[in-house]
Amino acid sequence: MLDLLIKGGMVLDGAANPGIHAAVGVEGDTVSIHRGDVSGLKARRVLDATGRVVCPGFIDVHAHSALMILADPLHYAKVHQGVTTELYGIDGNSYAPFRKQQDLDWFIQMNSGLEGWPDIEASWSTVAEYMDTYDRKIAVNMAYIVGNSPIRINAMGWDNRKPTRKQMDTQKALLREAMEEGAVGMSTGLDYPPGAYADTAELVELSKELTKLGGFYHTHVRYLLGDQHLDPFREAIDIGKRSGSPIHITHLLGNWKLKSSQAHLDLVESSRDEGMDVTFDCFPYQYGATRLIVFLPHWAQEGGPKKLIERLTSPETRKRINNEIDNRFEWDRLWLMYFKRAKNKKYEGRSVADIAEMRKQSIADTICDLLVEEDLRISWTVDNLDPESLPDFVVHPLQMVGSDALLLGDFPNPMMYGTFPIILARHVRRERKMSLPEAIRKMTSYPAQRLGIPDRGLLKDGMKADIVVFDVEHIEAHSTRYKPHQPSTGIDYVIVNGKVVVDHGKHTGVLAGRALRRGKTV
Fold first, then answer.
1. CA–CA separation, 140 vs 356, rounded Å?
2. pTM, whole model, 2 decimals?
């Protein structure tokens, strides 16, 4: 007796093969594929997928949900896109391991403008304990990649300096331990201190450990390096060459000022031609978003959040910070969100330029004062990426999908609700820039392969039952800049580990997500 039988649909297996007419059975958390007459099959529930596509659940390889999902485990925005697995710990900003509770608390504050500061109990220490916090307690599966920031903090604190030999050995030991406890690799966010304090040689040495353990290097590159164009990506490639580690460049997009998409893609392609294992992800929107403290100089962030706030309130260091904030940025196109203090809620969704005018302050003073008032937790989104070059990245065969969505504030970027559906609606159905089987591959088996998740990403006998059923003719993303909290439509069912989490387009409240550990089946 099957628990579920999905029949009548077109099955896309996730490997970019053409669809087949078949039924998908689910027994427990395991898939079986049935061709031909299935009238004799018995199932506790039958789902009619006539006129629909049945495919593996979607995998988001750049998710900022790690803390907010613990406060809101239903994860409505992502589940209604068909997401069944997310990768947490990206941009070097992960929440384990932390030997000292104070360091974990400080790190949550430091990264709050990117991943939030919800009212949750964060009391774990090791990677194993951290991953257990999610297991069977959230709506989707989580995979974990350890950031170099916590590794560095544990080994040598929050300061900008080179590690001693002992400190380097400690970092490598912590990385090995994280991998042994289930992390799939190591991430860096080289615009985010303290991980950004690591130079190329330090990252090469850590990446050599990844090579030994079968992990990979997932990087938000050092965007201000060298020519601030190709040099940041050349550093990532160099780390792969010198360490032997597979390289994954996250949110790879063209330079919105130079509109030079092909140069970036040529760099990735030439590295592959030389025998390197290089992949990338990107999102299908012209928005970028992160924490507001990214505009502050790295020296101001040394020592952690307490020291940073002290510098922001010191007249001497404040003057120096003001002089170093880039006033040439398009501040009228960058809006702020995630305000907690009642007096500042009026700024939610407004541009930095507008807020500065409202406060009768300079751009720099506005940024600094708001960060102090809000304990650093402010987020921003900017509309300045080149929309013309986006399709070149989205449809590229080496691309997989990473939403980079911030689940914060009243005006988050549209990626929060629409990343996966807009690719299927715009790039596949309307513009026909890639085939449906290829789009599904980029969302399923391809990221599963990169993450080392052996039992997901494909619909075939014996695989885990993470499944999406959707209407390819009507799937749509509705989220916009001014009306972001608009869920996508066209997805009928989402099944996670054999449990129906979305039923006829409605969330069931089931929390079936598992913590997926590297190389292990669960």
1. 40
2. 0.97
What values do phi and psi take at 6, rounded to 5? -105, 115
Q: DSSP 3-state helix, strand, coil percentages of the chain (rounded to 5)?
A: 35, 20, 45
Report the 3 state secondary structure along 391-434.
HHHHCCCCEEECCCCCCCCCCCCCHHHHHHHHHHHHHHHHCCCC
CA atoms within 13 A on the CB side of 68: 21
Domain with CATH 3.20.20.140 in the chain: 60-289+384-452
- Which portions of the chain are predicted below pLDDT 50? none
What residues contact residue 429 under an 8 Å CB cut-off, 6+ apart?
472, 473, 475
Burial of residue 295, with CB atoms counted within 10 A of its CB: 0-12 exposed, 13-18 middle, 19 or more buried: buried
Q: Is 64 exposed, middle or buried (0-12, 13-18, 19+ CB in 10 A)?
A: buried
Say how far apart CA 159 and CA 376 lie, in whole Å.
Answer: 18
Q: How far, in Å, CA of 417 to CA of 436, rounded?
A: 20
CA atoms within 13 A on the CB side of 341: 13
Beta strand ranges found along 223-273 (DSSP E) = 247-249
pLDDT, tens digit, 9 for 90 and up, residues 273-323: 999 999 999 999 999 999 999 999 999 999 999 999 999 999 999 999 999
Residue with tokens 């997500």: 513
* CATH superfamily, domain at 60-289+384-452: Metal-dependent hydrolases (3.20.20.140)
Quote the DSSP letter at residue 197.
G
List residues bridging with 133 in a β-sheet. none
Q: What are phi and psi of 482, to 5 degrees?
A: -95, -15
Q: For the packed helices 231-243 and 261-273, what is the interaxial angle rounded to 10 degrees? A: 10
pLDDT at 253: 83
Task: Encode 360-395: b = buried (16+ Cβ within 10 Å), e = exposed.
Answer: eeebbbbbbebbeebebbbbbbbbebbeebbbbbbb
The two three-digit tokens of residue 485, written as one number: 């909290």
Helix (H) or strand (E) holding 503: strand 499-503
Q: What is the dihedral of CA 351, 354, 359, 363, to 10 degrees?
A: 70
Specify whether the CB–CB gap between 194 and 161 falls below 8 A. no
CA distance linking residue 401 with residue 74, whole number of Å? 21
Beta bridge mates, 380: 290, 336
Q: How high is the pLDDT of residue 518?
A: 85
* CA 38 to mean position of chain CA atoms: 39
Amino acid making up residue 149: S
Residue 58 β-bridge partners: 83
| Amino acid letter, 476 | E
Structure tokens at 202: 């330090």
Q: How far apart are CA 135 and CA 129, in angstroms?
A: 10
